[in-house]
């Protein structure tokens, strides 16, 4: 689980009592959209040769649950056995 830790880095100072409420209005998340089957690869971690899943991922800012900005779009392939991701 190296890629995408969505709940890290929100606040953290401990001195903002309204951080929870603010976080409901302003959301920052990593979205992944499956694109179907990718290449057949031998996984560097679990060493199984399987068809990996292709995923498009982007960072997304939402305001009142409406997406207002997207950036850092990239495509990944994900091992179906252990979940390792690589840039594709
Ligand atoms: Zn694997």
Automatic annotation (TrEMBL):
InterPro entries: Zinc_ribbon_15 (IPR031493). It comes from Nocardioides scoriae. It comes from the Bacteria. Pfam families: Zn_ribbon_15. This is Zinc-ribbon 15 domain-containing protein. Residues 42-86 form the Zinc-ribbon domain.
